[in-house]
Known about the structure:
- The protein is α+β, with helices and mostly antiparallel strands.
- The protein has helices spanning 4-16, 37-47, 118-130, 180-191, 262-275, 314-322, 330-335, and strands at 26-34, 51-58, 74-80, 89-95, 109-116, 134-137, 146-150, 156-161, 170-177, 194-196, 209-212, 228-233, 235-237, 240-241, 255-261, 280-289, 292-300, 306-312.
Amino acid sequence: MRTVAALLVLCTLARAAEVEEPDYGRSLGWTIRASHLDVSLNFTRKVLGMKVLRHEEHAEACAVNRNGGFDSRWSSTKVGFADEDVGFALDITYNYGVEAYDYEAGSGLRRFVLTMPSKLYKKAHKAAKKGKWTVREAPTAAFGERFVVTGPDGYMYEVRMIDVGRKELFYEAVLTCADPSALSDWYQDMLQMVQVSVGGAVDHPPKSVAVAYPVLDPLPEGKQESVRYVFEWERESEDKWSGGRKPNLTPWAGRSTLALSEKKLRALHATFVEEEPNLIVHDLVEQNEVSGTHLVLVIKDPMGYEITIVSEPTFNQMAKAATDYTGPDWGVRAQYGEVVTEPSKPSSTIEHDEL
């Protein structure tokens, strides 16, 4: 098992010697579902202050089940606080003809945790209440002001006010599992993450464990902090947790996306083929792109959470080329049967407009 202290020493030595930066992985984002895309985009834009990065329409179901395995026309809209080559993004997928009741929430994905400076925090808090979303005030001694808002399709977002200059506003994704320690070990051994501090019990139940990819300290120019994955015991009720029980995972839980270098991804694929072939969801795909060979591998962890792993730097180059900050064409979508319930201004507008 890797330790943060040892890796920080390596990071410091690497920078002091002015050698090439260590070949670490990166958490790119998370795929979620939307039963009404306009509602989801208005929420992420007007309440959370994200921006639309790019939008894609797909006539057929995704070959690697990115749209949740539904056999339908679908779309993907990337939203975030920063561009994908730098920051963490949500991939909001919409399946034409799939209603809200088809997205059973399950018990796996608990919430996304965001950290915001006071100005953005106050705007988000005001917008959440103005939009009549379910808001729970949850201040703590450790983090001060904090609220939890339940957004479209039941996804929960915990927003903390932290004026400490963190660049990446996404802080962590919280997942339930039967054995947090064992799952953490797997992420460290197989995906080369490291264990990090989980915070106080006020935020996570006892025995919770957090992992993340390491970063250089201080951060190089143009880089942002890692997003952590926190593993909690499967939850029985609002104030009671149990261990030893797998969560009920459904397409609603989506999947995470990670990036590794081509060399590391090929090596990881070979390891899965030899040691854990049952965890390969979609085998390695090689795509010939202008920027070079791009690799995509879809696996699942021992608890059943799906993970897409792509190769860098080709992902960064492809994402930058596709980023146009343009949202959906609602007229085109109406032709395919989508009913817009919340007319929206151009969804590239950012930073809580109209507040």
